[in-house]
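Chapter review. Work through the record for DUF6597 domain-containing transcriptional factor before attempting the end-of-chapter questions.
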Amino acid sequence: MIRTFEPDNVLYKLVDYIWIADFSFLADGNRKDIIMPLGHINIIFNYGSPYRLVGEEEGMVFPDVAVIGQMKKAKHVQYGQHLNQIGISLTPLGFIKLFHEPGLELTERIAPVTDVDPDLDELYLMMIYKDTEQRIQAINQFLMNKLASNETNTEYIEQMLTYVEREYERLNIVSMAKCFGTSVSSIERLFNKNIGLTPKVYGDIMKFRKHVEDEELRRDIQYHYYDQSHLIKTSKKFAGKTIKELNNLPDELTLAYLWHDQQQ
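Structure tokens for DUF6597 domain-containing transcriptional factor:
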């Protein structure tokens, strides 16, 4: 099963959701997956078989506790026989507030959690023998403790994120710079440093994600891109497949879940 859980209310705006993927047996033909750029930074605790990247970085095995930074394009994954993972999908703001790290440090990286916070390794070990409910509680408590110790002022970053997430359909960087009373180069540099992506790339990801996650918007997705060629290029970049291929129930677990709500 693939399931998602809402975080504690205190973590609103910082954690989009906590997710669990648990399959006791995956046949050889059902072990493909894709990491889609969704604007998240993901922390993944793996309690199942080792899994690895395929394609560009053929054979790279993920750490048991990995942090996946902002991605600019889809990455292909191959699971083992047993899939048992729990993940935390952090918003860019959440990553900064909870771990005091700018997003640029992790862009296009899959890193061990010791590069971010050694306490995450302890959380992983603490949850090994716990059931699902206990794991969710442990994660919420861990993140709330992290938040309580935070004194970082992120108001300006939050305002920039809100702007891009609101204007993604018609995002104009010149207008954004004027709104914040600064130059285009300054706003791009500041946004990229903290979020790990430029406003344009983050806006493109938000646009595609909104249409992927909303069934109504998905039906009219072709009308939100300049032409068919632009839509095909965007879909291949962010999902690894064309819209037509996605509609035909892909083998990849994440795509089947997001596109067709297939939970098993």
